[in-house]
Amino acid sequence: APGVNPDTRPIYVGSNSTLNLNNAILIARIDSRNLRYSTPYYLIENHGTVEGQWGGLERGYPNPDIQVAWYDPKSLGADSAIVFSYVPTTLSALAPVTGGMAGASIIASAISAALLTYSPTSMTMVVGYDRQPIMLASAGVSEAGYIAPAYSKGIWLMPLYTRVNANDLGFDADSYGFALGGGGRFAPNFGVELYAGYLRNDLDFKVRGADSEDQDLYFGGFNLIYAPKPYFAKLMAVGYYANHDYKGYTGLYYDLVEKADYNSYGLRFDLIGGYIIGNKTRIIPQVGVSYAYYNTDSFWTKVPDNPNLRRRYEPDDLNVWKVIAGLDVISDFETKGTTNVRAFGGLRLEQAITDNDISAITYAPNQPKYKLEKSIADTTGILQAGIILSFNKRLSLELSGKADLNADYQAYTGRAVLRYNF
After folding, report:
1. Range of the domain at 16
2. Do 154 and 79 fall into the same domain?
3. In which residue ranges of the chain is pLDDT below 70?
4. Which of 7, 41, 200, 294 is the one with CA 20 to 30 A from 236?
5. How far is CA 145 from CA 131, 173, 227, 332, in A?
6. Which ranges carry the Autotransporter domain (predicted)?
7. How many domains are contained in the chain?
8. What is residue 67's predicted lDDT score, i.e. its pLDDT?
9. In this structure, are 168 and 53 located in the same domain?
C-alpha cells in the first residue's frame, strides 16, 4: 500500500536489513483524500539491500474507473513505483450527465406528449367539448348529431406526475408539477393554445458511485390547430430549461462526496395530421413527424476532500428526428343528469430516424479525454386513456394516464385537467 502522499515511501529497509521481493503480488491501496493522478508513488525507502522484484500488481479497491499500473514496468525492484490514472469504463462514469441528457429529456418528452396529444384546446377543435343536442324548431325534436359548444375559449390547470423506470440507463425518477394554459377557437377552423409549467424531478441512480439528482424544470409551449373537418393538422411545440443538482461518490472506495451544478435545455416540435371518422364515436388515424434538440452545459464536478479527483464533462448536443403514427378513439356517452362523459384512448408509435444516443467527453485534471456513449432504443410506444366529465357548459374535469414504453426506459404519467370555458 503506497504511503499517505507521493513523498512518503511505505516500505522501509534499514541499513543492516535485506528485503526479498520474491515475486510477491503488490495490492495497491491508498487514502482517497491523498490520491493524485499521473504521479509516481515510489514504494521502498532503501538503506539496505533489496533482492528480486515484484511478481504482479492488483487493484485493492472497488472503483474500476481509477486504474493503477507500474510507473516503469522495467523497474520492479528497489526503485519500483506505481501510478494511478482516470480511465472511465463504466456506466457510472456517465452518471453525472445522465440526468441532464437522458433524465430531463425523457421526462420532458413524456410531459410534452401528455400536453400535446390530448391538449384541452386541440380536443375542442377536433371533436368539441361540452357538446349538447340541437333542438330543431320545425320538428320539435332533438337532432341526432351534436354541435360545437357555445363557449369556444377556456383556461385550464393541469397537475402532473410522472414515474420513470430506466434501469438500463442507471436511474429511476419521480416528477411532480403542474401546467397552466389557455386558448381556444379564434377562427372557424383555427385554434391556438399557450401553456407554461414547472416540474420537480427527483432522480435516484442505480449504479455505484452515483447517488441522486434534483432538477427544477420550467417548460412552456404552444399548440396551433387547423381543423377543416374531417381533416385536421396540429403544430405543437414545447421547450424547457432545467437546473440540475447532482450528488455522487468518487475515490478509490467511493468514499468521497462528489457534487455538480449545471443547466440544460431542450426544444421539441411535432407536426401531426389526421382524419376524423365517425360522429358520436370517432376513430382518428394520424401521422406526423417530430424534431427535438437537447443541450446540456459542460461542467466540472466538485470533490471538496480531494479536488484532484474532480471530473470534467462536455456533453454532446442531441438532435433527434422521429416519424409518428397513431390511432385515437374518442366516444361520448349520454347521461340522464347534467354531467356529460367522454372517454378517449389511443396508441402512438414514435420511431427515431436519426441518432438517439447520449454521449459526452469526460476527463480528470491532467488526464486524457475519453468519449463515453450510451445508446437509447429508437422505438417508443405510447398508450393513453382517460375520461372527461363536463359538469356544465363552462366547467369540465379530465382524468387520464399515459405510458411511454421504450426498451431502455418506461415513463408513466398521470394528469388531471380542470378547464373553465368562456
Report:
1. 11-86
2. no
3. 1-5, 116-151
4. 200
5. 10, 45, 18, 11
6. 148-422
7. 2
8. 97
9. no
